[in-house]
Amino acid sequence: MAEGVSNPYRTDQVAEVPVFVGREALLADIASTIRSNRNAIHAVMGGRGMGKSSFARRLQLEIGADALTVVTSGRLERVTIDVERALGVTFSTDDPVASLAAAPARQASGRVLIVLDEIEKLMGSEDGLAFLDNLREAYEQARGRLGIVVLGGTGVRDLLLDKGSPFLRVAGRIHVLTGLSRDEAAHLMRVPLDLQVPDEVVDAVWAETAGHPWLLQMFMEGAVERAHTLEDIAAQLPAAIRDTEERLRSNAFPLWWDNLRPRGHKVYRTLTAASGPVPRAEWVQRLGNDPRPWLDVLASTGLAALDGDVVVARGVLFRQWVAENHPKLPAAAAPVEVGVDGWLIGVGAGPFERLVVRALATWARATMEFPAAAVRLDEASIAGNGALQPEAFFQMHALVTLLQHEAHLTAEPEALSMRSAGRSDIKVRSRRDLTHRACVEFKIFGRQDKTVVHQVIGYAAPTDTFAVVVSVDRHRRPLRPAYEAACFEKATGAEVHEPPEGVSHPAFLTVHAREGCSPLRVWHMLVQLRDA
């Protein structure tokens, strides 16, 4: 490092005059609410190194003499000591809520601002959550003279949505610390040492870091340490970036990835695969329902930029690390399997559909192998299908089979009719997502079953992707030709898919086009009971 030059970018200690760039609008917004005693509770979310602690110290300077400001962080014991010392209260003997609410009146300014950094450490214990709830109650009693600012990572959102501590009702919204703009990054790189960093170097570093303050600071710290003169600092940036990247790969990037969680991973991958910015009108379609919380997380980590109604992925270094360490593997080809499982996978059936069809196929095979209970035992019974129990009998036994999978699905029977001509069917839903539903229709062959396929198509909701028809017969062998002639009209325009060799249940699959929604797959279970 150049002789006689102190490094203002050091990340291992807090500088006497901290390097702080940007956030002016947010600082002014929060400061004005504190001074006006209105809406003086705020939540600020930012990823590691996004400048939360620097923001807290800067806010203290911004408020100045307008409010007694307590900036504290850490676990409850540390926070309690800092607040008690500053406000002259003792929570162990005083009423915490009353003491906090009365504290502003004892100050010359008539206001108190408590800034809590690293909020996740307080949320890690029941006592910490209780302290936060006391703060919220005190804020409401102090009528705006007590200001509260909480800062943290994704835990900020968890706190605001927690029913036991509803900060969101008071805070209103989350302020998100995002990456610095290009001009702010240039200011951070140039001003502390009055450096002449070329514009093309600023542009390259800004693209690498997505304007992440901590990354910029680390790069500049390394360049200053390497340089022999002030003029040599810009030239040392490439080497400093390489050195810093190794540190990021071993600690920061894995932490960022874990904090994104699976939903954040999906959103990030979609953004990085996009050819350009994704407009708001396409967010739900491309990113999934309610993507804004995850976009905020990405933005607060410097991995996405929200510009009005568009969002775009940022950060070259992290993107390269993800590609190397968490590559998106190509979709595996459908495994070659024998039997119904391979068939289901081959036609693209999801886990819910596979479970329902397999369960009903198992029930159909068992019913064929042990048919006695399905046949009336009284001597007056006539031959053929007249000797079969009503449809409701088969429905109830299939219902029992489906309910054995209650951890994954739920089955809802229609009102069961014990009349031989009664209609009966089942609605099946996925427990993981109750919007995933399917209809199962039961018919005794020859009992008003000519429209059974049209019935089940009509019962299906636009969001349903499949349905099942069960037709039970005793006296026709084989059943399928008679079933197709009586119940399945080719005029429906369906595609017919035959089962793999050795599979008898389902007997076949038809795919029916539907206007205004996705096609419907109908699985046909033909239960041919042998003679008693």
Task: Explain this structure.
The protein folds into three domains: 24-176, Rossmann fold; 182-325, no CATH class; 340-528, no CATH class. It has helices spanning 24-36, 52-63, 76-87, 96-102, 119-123, 126-141, 155-161, 167-171, 182-190, 199-209, 213-226, 237-273, 283-287, 292-299, 316-325, 340-346, 351-369, 391-403, 452-459, 480-487, and strands at residues 41-45, 68-73, 112-117, 146-152, 174-176, 278-279, 304-307, 310-313, 409-413, 424-430, 437-444, 466-473, 495-497, 508-514, 517-528. It is of the alpha/beta class and 532 residues long. The N and C termini lie far apart (96 Å). It has 20 helices and 15 strands.
What is this structure's SSE topology?
Layout: H1 24-36, E1 41-45, H2 52-63, E2 68-73, H3 76-87, H4 96-102, E3 112-117, H5 119-123, H6 126-141, E4 146-152, H7 155-161, H8 167-171, E5 174-176, H9 182-190, H10 199-209, H11 213-226, H12 237-273, E6 278-279, H13 283-287, H14 292-299, E7 304-307, E8 310-313, H15 316-325, H16 340-346, H17 351-369, H18 391-403, E9 409-413, E10 424-430, E11 437-444, H19 452-459, E12 466-473, H20 480-487, E13 495-497, E14 508-514, E15 517-528
Parallel strand pairs: 1-4, 1-5, 2-3, 3-4, 11-12, 12-15
Antiparallel strand pairs: 6-8, 7-8, 9-10, 10-11, 13-14, 14-15
Helix pairs in contact: 1-2, 4-6, 9-10, 11-12, 12-14, 12-15, 16-17, 17-18
Task: Using brief descriptors, characterize the structure shown.
3 domains, alpha/beta, elongated, 16% strand, Rossmann fold, 15 strands, 20 helices, 5-stranded parallel beta sheet, 532 residues, 7-stranded mixed beta sheet
